Amino acid sequence: MSEVLLKVIGLNKKFGENEVLKSITTDICVGEKVVVLGPSGSGKSTFLRCLNCMEDPTGGSIIFQGEDIADVKVDINKHRENIGMVFQQFNLFNNKTVLQNITLVPTVLGLKKMRKKMTKNFWIKFTNLFTKNKKELLVIEATAKDIKKQATDEAYKLLDRIGLADKADVYPSTLSGGQKQRVAIVRALAMHPKVILFDEPTSALDPEMVGEVLDLIKELADEGMTMVIVTHEMGFAREVATRVLFMDEGIIAEEGTPEELFNNPKSPRLQEFLSKVL
């Protein structure tokens, strides 16, 4: 049995009186590529956004790394370091260069962790003045300069991987849609996440740019990255998914392997949906 990475239990989401998600329960295991399909308004994107609490669930639990991240008392930002997110509209910072977009969060988090250790060491030194049992200082592996250099080096490696190293110092407004989305994907990779959530990553792209983004996602899938992908690309879903969830009216109406859902759909609603999109 594969290790469960995200455990969703009875997930509900309401917007006012509109119940968008209705008691969804599913497990997402390490290494799975879960593709979420369904008609517009079925709750696909809301489900994805609830998985990292960009939308606060109305009810239910989402267990990640032993904690219920749907609990308002949990520090969700700590867990978001391990849950990458790629959006329809790229969400790059237009006032920062491509390189700055990729290095921003790793640098900020690295500096934050370093300063936290420095603060703890200050208090360890202080308390050691008044006790015989001296505590050891925490090891600070890198300076601020080291942290920034590591983030920059990693960013260049990622940009080189997608053939955009020459775009490091330009602004997102000068990039094509496909280039922006590839930068957005490697920005998520720079955090070394345990799972990446893709919310219709090709829906805002011109048709000729879709392939370059899907090829990158396929590469990541082949390398074992755990993914949850909302998409309308049926051929891509059939090729990449290890499991497919079909959502309709806020529930998981059917799930299974791509072969099961595409070749032998059981519910009339899924049969109708596939007849329109295939």
Give a description of the structure.
- The protein has 278 residues and is α/β, with parallel strands linked by helices.
- Helices cover 41% and strands 23% of the residues.
- It has helices spanning 44-51, 76-80, 98-128, 144-161, 177-189, 207-222, 234-240, 258-263, 268-277, and strands spanning 4-15, 18-29, 33-37, 59-64, 67-68, 83-86, 195-199, 226-230, 243-248, 251-256.
- It has a six-stranded mixed beta sheet with strand order 6-7-8-3-9-10, sandwiched between helices. A four-stranded antiparallel beta sheet has the order 2-1-4-5, covered by helices on one side.
- Strand 9 and strand 10 (251-256) form a beta hairpin.
- Helix 3 runs antiparallel to helix 4 (144-161) and helix 3 runs parallel beside helix 5.
Note the beta-strand portion. 15-25%
Extended strand count: 10
Q: Output mean pLDDT.
A: 95
Segments where pLDDT lies below 50 for 5+ residues? none
Q: Please summarize the sheet with the most strands.
A: 6 strands, mixed
Radius of gyration: 21 Å
The backbone outline, from C-alpha atoms, is globular
Q: Helicity, in percent?
A: 40-55%
Oligomer: single chain
SSE ordering: EEEHEEHEHHHEHEHEEHH
Structural class: alpha/beta
Could you tell me how far the N terminus lies from the C terminus, measured between alpha carbons in angstroms?
A: 33 Å
**What is the number of helical segments per DSSP (H or I, 4+ residues)?**
9
Strand order of the largest sheet: 6-7-8-3-9-10
